[in-house]
Each structure stands twice: as structure tokens, then as C-alpha cells.
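Q: Now give one record:
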Amino acid sequence: MKIHFLYLEWGKLTIIWICAATEPTLRDDTVLRQKALLPTSKVEMVLPMEIGDYTDFFSSMHHAKNCGTIFVGPETPIPPNWFHLPIAYHGRASSIVISGTDIIRPRGQGRPTGNSPPYFGPSLKLDFELEMAAVVGPGNELGKAIDVNEAADHIFGVVLMNDWSARDVQAWEYVPLGPFLGKSFGTTISPWIVTLDALEPFACNAPKQDPSPPPYLAEKISKNYDIALEVQIKPSGQKDSSVVTRSNLKNLYWTLTQQLAHHTINGCNLRPGDLLGTGTISGPEPDSLGCLLELTWNGQKPLSLNGTARKFLEDGDEVIFTGCCKQGSGYNVGFGTCRGKVAPPRD
């Protein structure tokens, strides 16, 4: 059985009421529970919306600084435009898959070594990217920008997202137009869309932006959300997984609403179901880095996963994201899991 979840504002309070532990309607009726509730083992989750377009941003300052240091050097790791606008690229919507779908190791070209021609074959540096993504609700007309202070009204909710990356392919191809084959082979999202209304109790101040953003990105109230994020890797052939990253959505420099407003400032029309990825969410601590590129410093410092070393992902490895808003008024808000296993390349 496939379940396609649709959030209905009209029925929200009824569903919450009937599922409450203090309400006997469902709690004390065994027959009704058997009809109304299904074991997770008997349902197949599917994409919760039809995704027409997909954009991926680059909004974590810690991630930008680390990547720039690795590839450019520590002198000027972050490009000057980064502090003036939310940088992004247009991704491939057709290869976005639901949590639990295997990711086939992509093939592509890698940087030449010495006088040799470019490498071609399966990616040797397959990576995960810890992200979240905003799902567009009401769109906008072509040619009409969305005001940054009204942008929240155009975000239906957010999901967990793993924007898998072939680092060797990406490093060779990205100049001058940015990611292409190094990204378009697969992106995984969680099936649960959590609305901004549900996240409001966990809103927090966004980082101070210096220099001040241009007027069209200047928010009256600039906020992020305190969402604890965790990444685990279960190496191929092992029963246990290891936690490799603990980060938080509040580490974003550019907010979700600034990303959406910037996307439309040129008149680009967004449509319901479009997906806007945050980019890798890294924090300042060594264990809060959002990808293996940073965690292993491009393979120079391998991770130990229960005694198994990893520079990048190997076939059979499984990556599991979780997210949770903790310590609400007697409750938490969870996002489920966003998981995927690396499958061998196809001929």
C-alpha cells in the first residue's frame, strides 16, 4: 500500500484531538485502532508532493568557509558575493527520491593527474550533504517578486534532505557554471513535511549579517529554527551505525525566507511543490560538519566508524539523517528519517 500524505488545515485539530493520549475515542477502541492505524511495515512512503523545480542554496557560512579553505586556501575562502546574496544553482527535480531509496553510484569524469587524460568511471569520492529543504506553497506570478517579509506565507513546510554529491566529478566540472553530473544523480528527502506553524515555538534569532543585506533581503524579523540534526553512517556489512555529525538548522546564515525572496527578485515564478534546498548545514564544532568532504578534510583525515575507516562512502554504506525540535511545551516535533544506501554503479 502506498500512502501519499496531504496536510489539511480543516482537519488538523480533529486529528490531533482524536490521537491524544487523554482522548478515549481511539485509545480505548481496539477495533477502531486496527482500522485507523497501519503498521509502518505495511505501508510504502512516497514523495509527498509533485516537485516541478528544485533549487539548492549555499547558505551555511561554516560550510562555505571550510570548502573554500580546502579548494582555494585559507586566505580568501569565501567569495565576496557570498555575503551579499544567497548563492544557489538550479538542480534536477527528476532524480529526487523518497527516503529508503538506494542511490546508485554515479559515473563521470574526474580531474586529470599529471599529463594523463581526465579520469572516467565510478565516482571515487561519493559524499552525503546534510540539508533541509523548504517546500513552496502558494507560488507567484511570472515577473512579480515575493517580498521577503511575506515570504513565510509562501513556504508550506520543510523536510530533511540529503543532496548526495560526487566530489571528484563536481570538482572537475563546476568551473565555470557550477554543479551538474556531480549532483544530478540523486537527492533524497524525508516523507514528512513539517509546517512553519508547527516550527514557530522553536523559532530563534538568525545570525547577525555583516554587511547588512540589500533592502530586498532586509527582514523586519530575521529568524531561523532550532532543529537538531544528526547524521549516522552504517558501513557496509555492519549491524551498527555511527553518529558522525550533530548540527542544527539555526547554523544557517541566510534564512529560508531570504532564500525564497532572492529566488523571485528577478521575477522568477515559483510553483506549489517546488523544493528549495538550504545547502549543507555545518556548524562551528568539529562534530557539526555536514559532509564527509569537511569531516575528513577531503579524505586527508579518515573517519573511524566502529573501527572501519572511511574517507568517502563505499558501496553498501547507508546514511541516515534525523531531525527533531526538542523540549517544546511537553512535546517534540520530529521529521522522521531521511535514509539511503549506496548501490554499486551500473554498466
